TrEMBL record:
<dbReference type="InterPro" id="IPR025644">
    <property type="entry name" value="DUF4344"/>
</dbReference>
<protein>
    <recommendedName>
        <fullName>Metallopeptidase</fullName>
    </recommendedName>
</protein>
<feature type="signal peptide">
    <location>
        <begin position="1"/>
        <end position="28"/>
    </location>
</feature>
<dbReference type="Pfam" id="PF14247">
    <property type="entry name" value="DUF4344"/>
</dbReference>
<keyword id="KW-0732">Signal</keyword>
Amino acid sequence: MQKARRHPALRALSAAPLLTFLSPMTVAAQDTAHTGRRHISVVYDSPEQPDHREIYESVRQRHVLERVAAAFGLVRLPRRLTYRFKECSGEPNAWYDPRTHSVTVCYELIASILRLAPNTTSPAGVTREDAVRGPVVQILFHESSHALLDLLRIPVLGREEDAADQVASLVLLHLAPADARAVVNGSAYFFATLGKHEAIDRGSFADAHSLSWQRFYNLACLAYGSDKRHYGYIVEKDYLPAARAKTCEEEYKQIALAFQTLIVPHLRVSPGHGERLRRAFGKPSAAR
């Protein structure tokens, strides 16, 4: 079971802007729904805590899990994968469980993201909306990546948590250009904010996850390496050291090659869009 580290809680804020780039669908959401993909289902557990009710209603009405499942449903999976939002007894967490083949995100984790998000646009230009949707998308993509690595039996050299971050980053960079940039900025804000509050001791280096600042720089590097023009501000504003930036294009190409070799062959091929999807996953969204 892959579990994320506990995230710090600051102060309660509204869930209203949650994932607004995933526009609501006209059909009413149900507590349990099938995405139309035979091997993926989604579940929204009704929370007991009143503070989580607005989060539950927001993600449910916007069909957040259905949309993430639809993206990863483009991969042929050998068995059913379940996405679930639920309460976790106060634990702000998210994980993929290989025993039940399920991705779980806790309402407590969404609440902690809302508490960390700025009330107004940050000095770096990150809006509150981006600071919420960015990490929510990144976390869902990260745990979905764990699922792909497990279900497709993808060999991993190095730490699986780093590999899941890399797959998630590659996929989110293929969102529509404006959405990809917003998710990158919001996720980077989240990692940087966690890094500022992260106590570093010997145990921190034993954790399966990289430190928050490392995840910040890795994401920034892959974004810049995917398209130096579209993400040039990352270096111009000194968010990424010039010494690291020199290798980012090669880092991106290395991960893209691994994705092309190990995951793209498992994409569903259907008339009219199969090859387009294969080509798309070979280039970052900004280059389309």
